[in-house]
Amino acid sequence: MKLFYENGAALVFCSILRLFSAQYFKFQTSAKQGGFAINKVMFMNFSAILNAAQLEHASDVHVCADAPIRVRVAGRLKILAVPILSHNELSTWLMAQFKPAQHEIWLAGEQVDFALFDQGSGIRVRLSAYMTTDGIAVAVRLLSKQAPSLAELGAPEFLEKLKPFRHGLVLITGATGSGKSTTMASWIAHVNKQDEAHVVTLEDPIEYRFSSDKCLIHQSEVGNQVGSFSTALRDVLRRDPDAIVVGELRDLVSIELALRAAETGHLVIATLHSASAVEAISRLIDVFPSENKSFVRNVLSSVLIGVVAQRLVRCNTNVNKQGRIATYEVLTANAAVKNLIKEAKENQLPAVMQTSAAHQMFTFNQHYQKLLDMRLVMEAMPVWTS
Hints:
- The protein is of the alpha/beta class.
- It is built from 13 helices and 17 strands.
């Protein structure tokens, strides 16, 4: 790629390797306060990469500058048979995608997360761009055109019965890439078809877009429509919401505000990174200083509705072409669970989950055994680390 400057304006000429066809980058530039802004016209080899990944039934794509492009298929990485992108090609394309605020984040040396709809392939993706010792890297998650139904996910009955008018806190938890955002989006799609409620979402980035049906749905993206999760959680209570969907509880302030919103008569559904339902409870409490933990336990025990934890496991490809399926565990806040949380006895929660099917509770092992019995998975029971 070469840049030519003349009278404050820039002409950007991109020489990009073609993939499969004549798809390539084309950029238009215009002068702006002595610099230049890039307006993109999307004829991109990125579209061809996404098309190739989709043909492989990949869930993720890893694009690294000057290195083979890899895709995740059935939980394993494999090299995609497409040309390598240079540092300049990948950098130029990223700069064209970033919003001004994202440019600032990138220049500060931080990771940039965003989502986009690729016109060339017709695929919506979530991207995380970051720097490594080898140069630029981008992790790309391929998204469905619309959120799958809860039934298609095999999601717990607990979520199907969860109404947006209920007051309290629901956590959807799991490791990075375990499908938490998809599960949350599926719940939104579910209530949108049957409940007359106001659902407000705070996401980073927005992965699935919704049109209001029976529900009035308002989506806001951190870094775009709102500044931060914490700021948005303070403001959202003035919008007359029934349900508040929070993309991620990241810090003490956002957790504290989510608990407060649940206390004041709203349904709050939020994701959290943890390996299990019980660990989610401990992690949420451990964020607070020691002197506040007792108070937080009391609040949490009063507002908690339930925790849905999930993990992806390998399955038969005739069940899911991507070769992975979600396995779940559910902790619901009955009287026994509330008391154990108050008394700091989380170590006893797994036993309650194993014996409380009547309260819609079950563990990962119990759910995986059910998947085995249904022949949805063929591998022996995983050894869960927690």
